[in-house]
């Protein structure tokens, strides 16, 4: 990222080529619309280029991108919600009280479903998934720690994400809503 901050287009192109597809797939989990996911991913990369001198990345570029992607997805859903209610001629509802008993119960149930889905992954895929998503390690760091190639790590993450998507597909909207409430309200 230091080279990009200096205006190095080649370094920027490398980051784009290396992260764009994964970022689109990550956004697709939330948006269920490939064109919209690609559009938001392009917006994120455009922002990175425009603000390259000002961006302070605290952990890894990948984490920065995924945080930006979550924020873009939330922003998109907020705009959608606002337009939906405005089109109906009514005010958007207030945010759900995140500490209500019903919220806590449903959130615990969803968390248990997610944990069960993660626990059902093949052992190696589960371990690599947890290192990537829970410990925020890069694929290269995981590969070095486990003595695997980066491609093998990518394959295991792909397997894990496909299986989780399969198992959690019926709960996508609930998971996303509770994630938004937990993180933004």
Automatic annotation (TrEMBL):
Residues 15-82 form the RNA polymerase sigma-70 region domain. Keywords: Sigma factor, Transcription, Transcription regulation. Residues 112-164 form the RNA polymerase sigma factor 70 region 4 type domain. One of its GO terms (molecular function) is DNA binding. It comes from the Bacteria. The keyword Transcription applies. InterPro entries: RNA_pol_sigma-70-like (IPR039425), RNA_pol_sigma-70_dom (IPR014284), RNA_pol_sigma70_bacteroid (IPR014327), RNA_pol_sigma70_r2 (IPR007627), RNA_pol_sigma70_r4_t2 (IPR013249), RNA_pol_sigma_r2 (IPR013325), RNA_pol_sigma_r3/r4-like (IPR013324), WH-like_DNA-bd_sf (IPR036388). Gene3D superfamilies: 1.10.1740.10, Winged helix-like DNA-binding domain superfamily/Winged helix DNA-binding domain (1.10.10.10). One of its GO terms (biological process) is DNA-templated transcription initiation. It holds the Pfam family Sigma70_r4_2. Belongs to the sigma-70 factor family. ECF subfamily. This is RNA polymerase sigma-70 factor, ECF subfamily.
